[in-house]
Amino acid sequence: MANTIRIKRRASGGSGAPSSLVNAELAYNEVNDVLYYGKGNSGGNAVTIEAIGGAGAYVNLTGTQTISGTKTITGTLNLASATLSGNTTFSNNVTVTGDLTVNGTTTTINSTTIAVDDKNIVLGDIASPSDATADGGGITLKGTTDKTLNWADSTDSWTSSEHIELASGKTFRINGAQVLSSSTLGSGVTGSSLTSVGTIGTGTWQGSTVGVGYGGTGQTSYTDGQLLIGNTATGSLSKTTLTAGANIAITNGNGTITVATSGLGTIATQNANNVNITGGSIDNITLDCGTF
Question: In terms of pLDDT, which residue wins out, 161 or 87?
Answer without folding.
Answer: 161
